[in-house]
Amino acid sequence: MKRVILIALDSVGVGALPDAADFGDAGADTLGHILEYTKASLPNLFRAGAANISGVAFSSKKVDKPVFAFGKAAEKTRAKDTTSGHWEIAGVSLDVPFRTYPEGFPKDIVREFESLIGRKTLGNYVASGTEIIKELGDEHVKTGFPIIYTSADSVFQIAAHEAVIPLAELYRQCETARALLVGERAVGRIIARPFIGEPGAYSRTKNRRDYALPPPRDTILDALKSRGLDVVGIGKIEDIFCHRGMTRVDHTTNNAAGIEATLRFMREKTPRDGLIFTNLVDYDMLYGHRNDIEGYAKALEAFDQKLPELMDAMREGDLLIITADHGCDPEFPGTDHTREYVPILVSGDGVKPSDLGVRETFADIGATVYEYLTDEKWDEGTSFLRELFYERQ
User: Fold this and answer.
1) Which residues are 323's β-sheet partners?
2) What does DSSP assign to residue 243?
3) What is the pLDDT of residue 140?
4) Residue 187 phi, psi (nearest 5)
5) How far is CA 21 from the centre of its chain?
6) DSSP of 82-97, one letter per residue?
7) Following DSSP, what letter does each residue of 5-32 receive, concatenated?
């Protein structure tokens, strides 16, 4: 039996990429700054080899005998958003990144969207999701107009109070926006951002939904599924890949549920060959974007405490890969994603604690997963499978 358990710690970057200044992100370092400014205790990740990764700011915490293979990867796609990051992990980088709208969406797009949904809108500027509902929530409740906003990433977000615009209608509005923002106007994701509460005490709910574009070509998920292998998507994986390439899903909405779902699939009485792909969203959604460095640190500690359980749940033939999709440095100015390297930590039977170095693209991860499960090469990225084992498995 062969399985890969691939866990994306959403936004846990490990230092600015060489071109970070082009994105306004010079000096960003999500994990490095968390360790510098908090008392975060991550003994299991350090034992794995996280601090042994080349060039990390917290190398003073490296261990003499790491138990995982370790390295980091740069993003080939000129972007720093969730969709492009996950697609590249799955073996598809983009020649042209998704379009962003740093000045808000053009008037013609907004007018067309309003005409299609039959309502005016509020907002239409770059904003933090929690801040914009503080600013415009009362007016939204009074008028019934949805709040639209964006960020430095390629997103069109629609916020609405669940008692004012029911979820079904909000989701229809997102589907309308998805159909509108394609071609030259295309954004990576449309995101439903429902909230509840009273004036002065609004809070977002867990009924978020993402509407991504389909990948421009097959990812390793599509290829594995077509070969009859099991492909499990946990968390927002199904949304990121536009519901493509998966045989089973569990749309968990927070880290704790995502880890438990991962363990449940790992412990199945009759395991299936294939891939379990998990996104743990809280780092990004709850802490990175909100500049909550203490909350981020605690969430990392919670994962660190569960890592031994994940390792204990592994069976013969399992390969565990821990990585990320971009950064979101909570100590960096602003509330947007940051252009960073992502970690690579790999464990499994026969995996030697080797230095995988600095990979040129996230697609090296996908190429490795694909080769391990199929014994064939993927057409993008360079597999590091042969660097993992004492002897080829």
Assistant:
1) 8
2) T
3) 98
4) -115, 155
5) 22
6) HHHHHHHHTT---SSP
7) EEEEETT---SB-TTGGGGT-TT--HHH
Which residue ranges make up each domain of the chain? Answer: 3-95+215-388, 107-212
Side-chain half-sphere CA neighbours of 367 within 13 A: 20
Q: How many CB atoms lie within 10 A of CB 299?
A: 24
CB 161 within 8 A of CB 196: yes
For 309-321, how does the pLDDT look when each residue is reduced to its tens digit (9 = 90+)?
A: 999 999 999 999 9
Position 153 scores a pLDDT of 85
**What backbone torsions phi and psi does residue 179 show, to the nearest 5 degrees?**
-70, -25
**What is the CB neighbour count within 10 angstroms for residue 61?**
14
Pairing of strands 3-9, 69-73: unpaired
Nearest Cα to Cα of residue 159 among 175, 143, 170, 172: 170
Q: At what angle do helices 30-37 and 293-312 cross, to 10 degrees?
A: 110
User: Where do we find the tokens 């031994």?
Assistant: 308
Please tell me the pTM assigned to this model. Answer: 0.92
Q: For residue 24, is it left (φ>0), alpha (ψ between -120 and 50) or beta?
A: left
Fold of 107-212: Alpha-Beta Plaits (3.30.70)
Cα–Cα distance measured from residue 370 to residue 387, given in angstroms and rounded to the nearest whole number = 15
Closest CA to 237 of 224, 226, 253, 225: 253
Domain 3-95+215-388, architecture per CATH: 3-Layer(aba) Sandwich (3.40)
| Secondary structure (DSSP) of 105-145 | --HHHHHHHHHHHTS--EEEEE--HHHHHHHHHHHHHHH-P
H-type helices in the chain, by residue range?
30-37, 43-48, 82-89, 107-117, 129-143, 167-180, 220-226, 237-240, 255-266, 282, 293-312, 363-374, 385-388
Cβ distance 6 to 321 under 8 Å?
A: yes
The pLDDT tens digits for 90-124 are 999 999 999 999 999 999 999 999 999 999 999 99
**Are 335 and 157 in contact, with CB atoms under 8 Å apart?**
no
